[in-house]
Amino acid sequence: MASNPYFNQPLAPTRPRMFNTTIAKVVWTLAPLVTLGLCAAVPFVVAAVKGVVKPWLAVAYVVGELAVLGGSMAISPAGDDASPFAGFLLLILMITAATHTALLDNEKISIGK
To answer: What is the mean pLDDT of each run of 10 residues along the chain (113 residues)?
Structure first.
């Protein structure tokens, strides 16, 4: 009796998952929004530690967050400045980080994984 080579093949290793439940996904996605962008890079650092994404992606998010936060503070250091550009930068950071956090376990996206 010949054995079938498809039955004897080892299973392909699965990629680690960032979210175990839907509630965890919602909480991690809300983290950049609730903290007003101050913790925008935290989900990516955790994902890099878990092995979900490559470390360079987490480093890029940390550098990007520091650049946006530092840039927005440099643009509008005084509290009486009426320019909306600094707030717009922070809003873009929050939306981008929340969107990318929600897409961490998406199989169709392979950049940084």
So the answer is: 65 79 94 92 94 93 93 78 83 94 86 78
Show the tokens assigned to 34.
């609730």
CB 55 within 8 A of CB 45: no
Token pair of 65 as six digits? 């967050």
**How many beta carbons lie within 10 A of that of residue 48, not counting itself?**
20
User: DSSP per residue over 43-76, as a string?
Assistant: HHHHHHHHTSS-HHHHHHHHHHHHHHHHHHHHH-
pTM score: 0.79
Q: What is the pLDDT of residue 73?
A: 84
Residue 109, Cβ density class (10 Å: 0-12 exposed, 13-18 middle, ≥19 buried): exposed
Query: In the structure encoding, which two tokens stand for residue 71, read together?
Result: 């840039």
Terminal CA-to-CA distance of the chain, rounded, Å?
Answer: 42
